[in-house]
């Protein structure tokens, strides 16, 4: 697996995940003490921290009939609940049952039960995310058919029942999305959506804002209005014109603006600053001022995943160069690479070659509990 040279702020370890195909996603729970992985082998695995820096497998099951693209945890207030999405055109909700402090089988694996199967999509479901806790138990999915679907569990004690609350057509293939985790009551619920639509004339022509102004960007911002009870596209980021593989809002701890990480052919950090209402008095419909704060090409290849730490000051990215890179905000909002984790077994492969079937994970943690999941 190779040895790594790291700073004293970071450590790394290799976990033999025993997935039989490419691992697509890794997700930590709210406390960073549990971890879920999903793969093209159609399996989901759950890992628990042993309290000594190691991880042990506590759950493994076949979740779908196709590649499992994403896995995500619900807030622990709603129990031990996972959601997954797949190439088989479905999203699923899973709940751990039984005593979580006891082993449930001969192999010491606990039991996860499928509580619901969401079958509204006619194409591959490419991403799934639980909403911020203060909005209740919400789940958003997106799919290659260009539709965002937002579901709600009206009774959090009955995870078998989910109501389709909103269906938002985007008109282009959607690859990823992210809730804005801001807890501010001033800001309405917000979603960032990324498209992997190729740059063709037809695709560009079809991507329009609600004000019918054409935009050839690949990232869209949607906000929910309590007055109209609907989601509306409020911005299109023209600074991102390449297909988007992943997208993530940073946790907002008192900032007056939002930070959005975008994984395309490189890594970008975009500042999204709400404009005061007075600025719209001249007839402009703009809701935000956007600025690319940083763009990193050090992966020299396609970037697949981006993930923030709990304070929104450290970003992890992974790419086809078989490296995980950590970016930290410095003085005056300058960003700098502070660590690189390489897999020596794969680092010699050409970035132009297809990604190998990865059946192990390279994990990194800070010296504090701000865990970082990555591809």
Describe it:
The chain has a domain at 1-17 and 257-276 and 288-375. 2% of the residues lie in helices and 46% in strands. The protein has one helix spanning 201-206, and strands spanning 10-16, 23-28, 34-39, 43-49, 55-62, 68-73, 81-86, 91-97, 111-118, 125-130, 138-143, 147-152, 163-169, 174-179, 190-195, 219-225, 230-237, 246-249, 258-263, 267-274, 288-296, 303-308, 314-319, 323-329, 335-342, 360-366. A hairpin with a 3-residue loop joins strand 23 (314-319) and strand 24 (323-329). The strands form 7 sheets. Strands 2-3-4-5 form a 4-stranded antiparallel beta sheet, with no helix packed on it. A 4-stranded antiparallel beta sheet has the order 6-7-8-9, with no helix packed on it. The chain has 375 residues and is mainly β. Keywords: Cell cycle, Cell division, Lysosome, Mitosis, Nucleus, Protein transport, Repeat, Transport, WD repeat. This is Nucleoporin SEH1. It holds the Pfam family WD40. It comes from Galleria mellonella.
């Amino acid at each position: 697996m190779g040895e790594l040279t790291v700073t004293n702020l970071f450590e790394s370890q290799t976990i033999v995940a025993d997935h039989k195909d490419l691992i697509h996603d890794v997700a930590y729970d709210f406390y960073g003490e549990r971890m879920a992985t999903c793969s093209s082998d159609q399996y989901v695995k759950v890992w628990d921290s042993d309290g000594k820096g190691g991880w042990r497998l506590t759950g493994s099951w076949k979740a779908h009939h196709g590649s499992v693209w994403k896995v995500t945890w619900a807030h622990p207030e709603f129990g031990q609940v996972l959601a997954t999405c797949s190439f088989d055109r479905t999203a699923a909700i899973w709940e751990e049952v039984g005593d979580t402090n006891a082993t449930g089988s001969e192999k010491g694996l606990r039991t996860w039960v499928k509580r619901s199967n969401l079958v509204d999509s006619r194409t591959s479901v490419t991403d799934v995310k639980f909403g911020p806790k203060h909005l209740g138990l919400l789940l958003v999915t997106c799919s290659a058919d260009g539709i965002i679907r937002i579901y709600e569990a009206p009774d959090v004690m009955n995870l078998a029942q989910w109501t389709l609350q909103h269906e938002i057509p985007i008109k282009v293939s959607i690859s990823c999305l992210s809730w804005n985790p801001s807890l501010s009551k001033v800001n309405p619920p917000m979603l960032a959506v990324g498209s992997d639509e190729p740059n063709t004339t037809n695709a560009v022509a079809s991507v329009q804002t609600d004000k019918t102004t054409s935009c050839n960007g690949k990232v869209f911002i949607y906000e929910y209005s309590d007055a109209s009870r609907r989601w509306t596209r409020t911005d299109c980021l023209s600074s991102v014109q390449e297909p988007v593989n992943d997208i993530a809002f940073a946790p907002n701890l008192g900032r007056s603006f939002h930070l959005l990480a975008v994984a395309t052919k490189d890594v970008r950090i975009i500042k999204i600053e709400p404009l005061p209402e007075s600025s719209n008095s001249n007839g402009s419909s703009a809701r935000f001022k956007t600025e690319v704060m940083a763009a990193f090409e050090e992966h020299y290849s396609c970037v697949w995943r981006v993930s923030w730490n709990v304070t929104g000051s450290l970003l992890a990215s992974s790419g086809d160069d078989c490296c995980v890179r950590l970016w930290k905000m410095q003085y005056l909002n300058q960003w700098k690479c502070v660590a690189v984790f390489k897999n020596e077994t794969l680092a010699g492969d050409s970035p132009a070659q297809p990604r190998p079937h990865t059946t192990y994970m390279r994990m990194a943690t800070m010296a504090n509990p701000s865990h970082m999941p990555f591809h």
